[in-house]
Amino acid sequence: MTDRPSLAVILAAGKGTRMKSAREKVLHEVAGTAMLAHVIANAQAAGFARKAVVLAPGMKQARALVEAEAGDIEVFTQSEQLGTADAVLAARSAIENFDGDVIVLYADTPLLRAETLVKLKDALAGGADVVVLGFEAADPSGYGRLIETAQGALVAIREDKDASTSERAINLCNSGVMAFKGAHLLGLLEKIGSDNAKGEFYLTDAVGLAHEQGLQPVAVRCEEAETLGVNSRAELARAEAIMQERLRSAAMAGGATLVAPETVYLSCDTRIGRDVLIEPHVVIGTGVDLAEGATVRAFSHLEGARVGEGAVVGPYARLRPGAEIGAGARIGNFVEVKNATFEEGAKANHLSYIGDAHVGVRANIGAGTITCNYDGFDKHRTEIGEGAFIGSNSALVAPVTIGKGAYVGSGSTITKNVADDALAVTRATQEVREGWAAKVRKRRNRDT
Ligand code: UD1
Ligand code: MG
Predict the structure, then answer these.
(1) pLDDT score, position 302
(2) Number of C-alpha atoms within 13 angstroms, CB side, residue 268?
């Protein structure tokens, strides 16, 4: 990698009409992250420290996303969609007098790897003036074709609609990603006209112009799968499938066991330690951290949660944001945890809701325990002390504290604090009537 100043111009002005969505296209998510955020992160990872995003007028959601991103990202508006060259020109003030590497990326192409973008940078460092990322297309129709000489020198890109029959037979296509030596970019853009089949200003014309001026355009290649652009829900699902494949492979390469990887859904920010075991049919949303040796059993759903070393979650567990499961703790079937900490070795093995709570070391929460954390207006906390034992089917009405080593009798509704080592029982005393059932049967002549 070079340390020349580097700028990424990210084109995001596309309408995305085929998504049929109230959400702007580049806000649609792949593995839990908006496509635009993927592209920004990849540009950053590839060393493009400065970034400019080109939006269409009125794109409020994309603007808000960019403003929330770390670092200073410039936002430009392309007032009319006159073509990709015009879109780059919308960022004129960023590229004017910028004497470094400039890469142009599409915000709807989330699968491009940072390593691939670095190849374009390396080609510029190696003497190229314009670099095009090409790929061998299984079906090249619709793409711009890379026109090379017999010696393999890139001389032009021909858009599908403008190509001759022989040019259409070329399989080497333009991915849309192009990089430029900044010093030449504005000059090239200003010479691009719109005398073509679509009447648009094609960024791809920069290649032919550069060649005519004696500059050096070159092509570098990547896998077709990386270049997938998302224009429809079906393409979004394809991008998701490819991204999931990558994430599962990376998890396994990092030392995790995925029993049935094709049934496990991860997010791009999922952190998975060594010897983590993930059983089939697990969905992991954003913000999840699985520490070394943790187990997530089948059919569990996790988001915004941390699972400590050697802890076991599931089967059928739900961890919601703010769930912190300590080392060796156990969260069993049909247990929901939200904004609650389980300290080391604490357990809730069956059918519980634990929200806005702190559960002390080795405390045991019986089946069917509910923290009543919401009074219809506000949320309140429940504190369960170290080694406490909560009997099955108890309701803990927050705010409430159960002391260290205290017991709550099964079926209790606890509304007042329970002192350390005390027993609290609130259920009615059991009444027994000997022979009652037999008497009733007799009276009804059913004593068979
Ligand atoms: C473009 C390339 C083509 C390449 C293909 C890869 C040109 C002229 N053609 O064609 O060689 O094979 O991508 O997918 O560049 N955009 C704007 N403003 C505009 C026009 C486009 O921001 O005025 C953005 C779009 O949102 C999109 C990207 O640029 O993200 C590409 O535009 P699109 O219209 O899809 O170009 P293609 O015709 O597919
Ligand atoms: Mg396109």
Answers:
(1) 99
(2) 20
Quick one: what percent of the chain has pLDDT higher than 70? 99
The answer to the question of residue 433 being in a domain is no
Q: Among 13-22, 182-191, 308-317, which stretch is predicted with the lowest mean pLDDT?
A: 13-22
3-state SS record for 179-196: EEEHHHHHHHHHHCCCCC
Tokens of 359: 């559960």
Pick from 227, 257, 289: which residue ends a domain? 227
- What distance in Å separates the CA atoms of residue 23 and residue 231, rounded to the nearest whole number? 13
Boundaries of domain holding 280 = 233-424
Whether residues 239 and 374 fall in one domain: yes
| Domain count within the chain | 2
418 C-alpha to ligand 1 centroid (Å)? 66
Pocket test for ligand 1, best of 106, 141, 162, 196 (most atoms within 8 A of CB): 106
CATH of the domain at 39: 3.90.550.10
pLDDT band at 448 (very low <50, low <70, confident <90, very high): low
Task: Report which of 325, 356, 254, 345 is spatially closest to residue 313, judged by C-alpha positions.
Answer: 325
User: Using an 8 Å Cβ cutoff, are 131 and 179 in contact?
Assistant: yes
Q: What element of type H or E holds 247?
A: helix 233-253
Is residue 441 in some structural domain? no
Q: Domain check: are 218 and 334 in the same one?
A: no
Are residue 148 and residue 246 in the same domain, yes or no? no
Are 381 and 357 in contact by the 8 Å Cβ rule? The answer is yes
Rounded to the nearest integer, the mean pLDDT of the chain is 97
Reading the block at residue 272, the tokens are 């998975």
Confidence at 447, pLDDT banded by 50, 70, 90: low
What digits encode the pLDDT tens for the residues 375-388?
999 999 999 999 99
Same domain, 255 and 169: no
Residues annotated catalytic, as ranges: 350
Determine which helix (DSSP H) or strand (DSSP E) holds 87, and give its type and residue range: helix 84-89
For position 17, what pLDDT does the model report? Answer: 93
At residue 272 the predicted structure's pLDDT band, cuts being 50, 70 and 90, is: very high
Q: Which residues line ligand 1 (CB under 6 A)?
A: 11, 13-14, 54, 78, 81-84, 86-87, 106, 108, 143-144, 157, 159, 173-176, 202-204, 229
**Measured CA angle at 337 (ends 335, 417), to 5 deg:** 100
Share of residues in the chain with pLDDT > 90 (%) = 97
Please indicate, yes or no, if residue 435 is contained in any of the structural domains: no
